[in-house]
Automatic annotation (TrEMBL):
Domain Cation/H+ exchanger transmembrane: 131-510
Gene Ontology annotations of biological process type: proton transmembrane transport
Segments traversing the membrane: 91-117, 123-140, 204-227, 233-256, 268-296, 308-329, 338-357, 363-380, 392-413, 425-447, 459-480, 492-518
Primary location recorded for the protein, binned into one broad class: membrane
Record region (Disordered): 1-20, 542-561
GO molecular function: antiporter activity
UniProt key word Transmembrane helix: yes
Database matches in InterPro entries: Cation/H_exchanger_TM, CPA1_transporter, Na+/solute_symporter_sf
UniProt keyword Transmembrane helix, yes or no: yes
Gene3D superfamilies: 1.20.1530.20
UniProt-recorded name of the protein: Sodium/hydrogen exchanger 9B2-like isoform X1
Compartments (UniProt record): Membrane
Length: 561
């Protein structure tokens, strides 16, 4: 008697009726895939398909990264060959990405602005400066030098080398606006990075370091320029204040890089120099404005003398008020409150830096920008709103990557070799060297009352050398004012100030930044951030400051995370 199972042995149905385990299903799936591959191969086995398939196999064998893995101990030649493999990675991938980004940015600008973004226009010149300075900054890093040096050199070349001098097409209004916007970014970054604990501990040292070297260099340069360059005393003092200002745009990025790597944070050296640098600039700009007003005085001299200090005081007061406002506005529970606080912080900073000259109070904006960032960050730390601080700090770092090449490229583009006089160059360098010598000595003495070691004091003195931003901003003001007043004799004095300011940028910006980056790891102690937080906790606890203790405990926990 035959038993019917419902499926005959010759039935093409699934093997589930014969084999009920998982292996049967797996074998069926493999066989079906093989049949599909064979049918597909027969359908597409034309000459074109076979040719492309063989070419692809050949290219994979030569350029495929998976087919050509690196050995355990590769040579330089093998590493170079592997870098060219596909898909692109490492430097090759970075180059391809950069080229695509710059090309697509240019295409987007042309698509939006049309002929206003073509060669010969202001937008095209800014695009070239941005692209070329990023490239120059990247290349010079292979020489172990800071990227801003390469950006500065490229900016000078784009202004003075024939056939590529596209920087001359950048309008002065746009150049000043971009430079001031970049200055806003770096001042906010500096304000966010100030350590209140170290600042309170070094408050008197900050005042000494900000005032003493600046005033000493200004006075020495006044005397030197009077005898070397033949400047009248009042114009010599004006020149002294021009060259006496340190550049936060050069110093702060270098110090923040050292701070991020743990150098000098155990004694608050980055905080000391950053805080003093901003005050130093305000002092130099204030002194320059006072002397400029006296030199061209046609009104109340008393108001010209007291205007500068009042501008600085107004900047501090307004910055503190806006900073406290950002503790509460917008409310923490509001949607996108973190983004809105960052937006308001930058809006206030830009309004201060760009708007204060409109009200003839240029000394107010930079100090307002620095103060609002510092006070706002202080409140966010105290209220344990570290997410706000982290978001704005990260956003600031990204913005700095964009504005850094524009800032130093446009500063370099201010240098016109045709306007340099050889006699002025020689005596100008002598004036600069004498001033820097006294500045370095006074800066070293200014920090002698602290607990810094000798080599750390030497680093602070060297960090006080770079100059660029203030010189580029105010170096031509005296000349422009003299031309407006139509005084030929005063124009000659103003041109001398401009030429010396150019020399200051060319000499001190690259040398000073290189000294800071190269001597920092050798002269400063490297400290782990978590260790630094523990040391601060002990110091604060001994002072009985419970409020600071709670805030730094939060910072320590966030560091561990």
């Amino acid at each position: 008697m035959t038993t019917h199972t419902g499926v005959t042995p010759s039935s093409p149905g699934p093997r589930k009726s014969f084999i009920g385990d998982k292996e049967g299903y797996a074998e069926d799936e493999i066989e079906q895939q093989k049949l599909q591959m064979k049918s597909t191969t027969r359908a597409s086995s034309g000459p074109c398909f076979l040719f492309c398939h063989r070419v692809g196999q050949s290219l994979n064998a030569v350029f495929g990264r998976a087919e050509n893995p690196l050995p355990e101990n590769p040579t330089r030649c093998q590493r170079f060959k592997n870098a060219l493999m596909c898909p692109p990675q490492g430097l090759l991938g970075l180059y391809i990405t950069s080229v695509l980004m710059f090309a697509l940015l240019f295409v987007a600008l042309v698509s939006i602005l049309g002929s206003a973004a073509l060669p010969g226009s202001n937008i095209f010149a800014l695009w070239v400066v941005f692209t070329a300075c990023i490239t120059g900054g990247y290349i010079i890093q292979f020489l172990k030098l800071p990227p801003l040096l390469g950006m500065l050199i490229v900016g000078i070349m784009l202004r003075n080398v024939p056939y590529i001098n596209v920087a001359k097409d950048v309008e002065s209004f746009w150049a000043a606006t971009v430079r001031n916007t970049a200055l806003t970014v770096i001042l906010i970054r500096a304000g966010l990075g100030l350590d209140p604990v170290a600042l309170r501990k070094l408050s008197f040292a900050v005042i000494r370091l900000a005032f003493c070297p600046c005033l000493a260099e200004a006075l020495v340069a006044t005397v030197a320029s009077h005898f070397f360059l033949g400047q009248p005393w009042i114009w010599g003092l004006m020149l002294g204040f021009v060259i006496a200002a340190v550049s936060p745009a050069v110093v702060v990025p270098c110090l923040l890089h050292l701070k991020d790597n743990g150098y000098g944070i155990d004694k608050g050296i980055p905080t000391l120099v950053i805080a003093a640098a901003s005050i130093d600039d305000v002092l130099a700009i204030t002194g320059f404005g006072v002397v400029l007003g006296i030199a061209f005085s046609e009104g109340n001299i008393v108001w010209s003398i007291f205007k500068g200090p009042l501008e600085a005081l107004l900047g501090i007061v307004l910055g503190a008020l806006f900073g406290v406002l950002l503790w509460y506005i917008p409310p923490r529970k509001q949607n996108n409150s973190i983004f809105l606080r960052g937006f308001l912080l930058y809006a206030i900073g830009l309004a201060g830096v760009l708007g204060s000259p409109r009200f003839e109070m240029p000394g107010t904006g930079p100090l307002l920008c620095l103060t609002v960032a510092f006070v706002a960050a202080f409140g966010w730390r105290k209220k344990k709103e570290l997410k706000v601080l982290d978001f704005i700090s990260n956003s600031t770092a990204v913005l700095w990557l964009i504005f850094q090449p524009l800032l130093f490229g446009l500063i370099g583009a201010e240098v016109e070799m045709d306007e340099l006089n050889m006699k002025t160059i020689g005596y100008g360098i002598a004036t600069l060297c004498v001033g820097l010598l006294f500045r370095t000595l006074v800066a070293y003495l200014a920090v002698c009352g602290t607990d810094l070691l000798r080599k750390e004091k030497l680093f602070v003195a060297l960090a006080w050398l770079p100059k660029a931003t203030v010189q580029a901003a105010i170096g031509s003001v005296a000349l422009s004012t003299a031309r407006e007043k139509k005084h030929p004799e005063l124009e000659a004095y103003g041109l001398t100030i401009l030429e010396v300011a150019v020399l200051v940028i060319l000499i001190t910006a690259p040398i000073g930044s290189a000294l800071v980056m190269l001597t920092g790891p050798r002269l400063l102690k490297k400290t782990d951030p978590s260790t630094m937080s523990s040391e601060n906790l002990k110091a604060i606890k001994s002072e009985g400051n419970d409020e600071m203790l709670e805030r730094n405990t939060t910072l320590q926990e966030s560091t561990k995370m």
